[in-house]
């Protein structure tokens, strides 16, 4: 198993992995937008194939937040003081998944750590955010228990099917 930075030729493999593992799917140009804008932040886990190639079995796709409205995880719309706080550079994990046969081997944690390290080293990120379904026990364990993210708030009906999301955040104290 190998973990390396994602390249543009990996985008179809990442999209395939995403389609197999998550209901939140994206058009190819969304992957391209991440790869071209923040190439340092997305990673793939690969295994060798019989024909000498490689197959993508996991990925993390991440970005630097570029929308000031998302400063400090969408402040309360009535909180004028929070809205006016200076913009803090921070990363966002857009999507992470690992093919079923390759789960519980530490791949997602490694992919996430690589991306988070690049956020601080390349872009000076002060923290990283993400959203996760309230019912997603595996991902919650990964974020909260393994990687020490905190739940900041519940976003009601965040997902298309009406499920609530936890908005989570990890402040970068020192590199980890
Ligand atoms: N139940 C409980 N704990 C779990 C589970 C599970 N099903 N799966 C993993 N964990 C724990 C591991 O034991 C490990 O804990 P430890 O650090 O205490 O040893 C920790 O989570 C990390 O495990 P990894 O092996 O690194 O995780 P894995 O490679 O299996 O990937 C993932 C976890 C990405 C959630 C995987 O289950 C998956 O692809 N699920 C479907 C897609 C998904 O839900 N993605 C996240 C959506 S949210 C978002 O993308 C921002």
What does the model show?
Helix 1 (11-21) crosses helix 2. Strand 2 and strand 3 (54-64) form a beta hairpin. Helices cover 30% and strands 28% of the residues. The longest helix has 17 residues, at 107-123. It has helices at 11-21, 28-37, 80-83, 107-123, 137-146; strands at residues 2-5, 43-48, 54-64, 90-98, 127-133, 150-155, 165-171. Strands 1-2-3-4-5-7-6 form a seven-stranded mixed beta sheet, with helices on both faces. With 176 residues, the chain is of the alpha+beta class. The structure holds acetyl coenzyme *A. Residues 21-22, 93, 95-98, 103-109, 130, 132, 136-139, 141-142, 145-146 line the site of acetyl coenzyme *A.
Tell me briefly what this model is.
Helices cover 30% and strands 28% of the residues.
């Amino acid at each position: 198993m190998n973990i390396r930075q994602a390249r543009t030729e990996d985008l179809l493999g990442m999209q395939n992995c995403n389609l197999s593992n998550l209901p939140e799917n994206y058009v190819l140009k969304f992957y391209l937008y991440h790869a071209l804008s923040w190439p340092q932040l997305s990673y793939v886990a690969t295994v060798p194939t019989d024909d000498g190639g490689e197959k993508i079995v996991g990925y993390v796709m991440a970005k630097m937040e570029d929308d000031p409205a998302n400063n400090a995880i969408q402040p309360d719309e009535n909180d004028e003081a929070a809205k006016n706080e200076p913009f803090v550079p921070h990363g966002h994990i857009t999507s992470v998944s690992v093919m079923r046969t390759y789960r519980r081997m530490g791949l997602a944690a490694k992919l996430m750590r690589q991306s988070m390290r690049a956020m601080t080293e390349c872009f000076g990120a002060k923290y990283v955010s993400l959203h996760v379904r309230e019912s997603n026990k595996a991902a919650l364990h990964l974020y909260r228990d393994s990687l020490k993210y905190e739940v900041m708030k519940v976003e009601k009906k965040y997902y298309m099917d009406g499920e609530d999301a936890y908005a989570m955040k990890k402040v970068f104290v020192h590199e980890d």
